[in-house]
Amino acid sequence: MNDPTLLIEELLKKIRSCRACQEKGYIPEARPVFSPVYPSSWMLIGQAPGKVEQESGLPFMGRAGRNLFRWFKEIGWEERGFRRSVYMTSVTRCWPGKQARTSGDRAPSRKEIDLCLPFLMEEIELVSPRVVILVGKLAVKVFLNIDKLEDAVGKKFQQKGRIWIPLPHPSGASRWLNPEENKARLREALRIIKELRDAGN
Ligand code: SF4
Fold first, then answer.
1. 68, 135 in Cβ contact below 8 A?
2. For the whole model, what pTM was predicted?
3. Domain of 173: which CATH number?
4. What is the dihedral of CA 144, 146, 149, 153, to 10 degrees?
C-alpha cells in the first residue's frame, strides 16, 4: 500500500485509537485531538491540547486559539481559511490534565512525548509540508533544539527540506510579549509567514 492518502488514513486510525498514556496512568483520559488536512503544504505543531480542545475535538479552540488566530488575521489569514488549509497537530495529542496546585494545564512529560512523537514524525513524512509553524517552547525545543524563544521567534529555519517558523505559545505569550523586542520578534515571524504565503507556499 503506497498511496500516501491511504497511508495517512491508516496512521490517523492508529492515533485516534491510541490509549497508551491513559493505560500507563500518565493522563486522565486519552482523546487524541488534531485536525488532519491533507494534502497540505503547511503544518502547525503546538504543545498539547487543553480541556476545551479535548471537548471540541479540534486544536486551538480556547483562549490560546483566539490569540493565535488574531495574530494570523493581522496578516490576512482568517481562521476559517487557515483551518481548511493547514494540518494542525501537536507534540502530544491528548490533554495532559491540570498542573498540581495551579489552574493551568500541565506540560506533557518526557514519557508522554516519547510515546506520542513517533506519530508526529510519521505524519510529517507522509504529509510532507513545505512550511511548519512551531507554536510554543516545547515544539521549538523538540524540532529545532533551541531552548529560548528569544533565539528562535522572528527567524526561519531550513531543515530536512522544509521551512520551520517558531511562534510563542499564545496562551502564555502575553508575558513573553511584554518586552518591545519580543513584540518585534513576533511581528517578524508573522511577516515571514505572510511572505511565504504570498509566494504561493
Ligand atoms: S498523547 Fe499520544 S501517545 Fe499519549 S495516549 Fe494520546 S495519542 Fe496516545
1. yes
2. 0.95
3. 3.40.470.10
4. -40
Distance of CA 19 from the midpoint of ligand 1 (Å): 6
Nearest Cα residue to atom 6 of ligand 1: 94
The model's pLDDT over 182-194, given as tens digits with 9 standing for 90+, comes to 999 999 999 999 9
Domain that holds residue 47: 4-198
152-172 pLDDT, tens digit each? 999 999 999 999 999 999 986
Q: Ligand 1 atom 2: the closest Cα is on which residue? A: 116
Could you give the CA distance from residue 153 to residue 135 in angstroms, rounded to a whole number? 10
What cell numbers appear for 29 in the block?
A: 483520559
Number of domains in the chain: 1
* CA–centroid distance, residue 115 to ligand 1 (Å): 7
Cell 528562535 -> residue: 152
Expressed in angstroms and rounded, the spacing between residue 149 Cα and the centre of ligand 1 is: 26
- As given in the structure block, the three cell numbers for residue 105 are 494545564
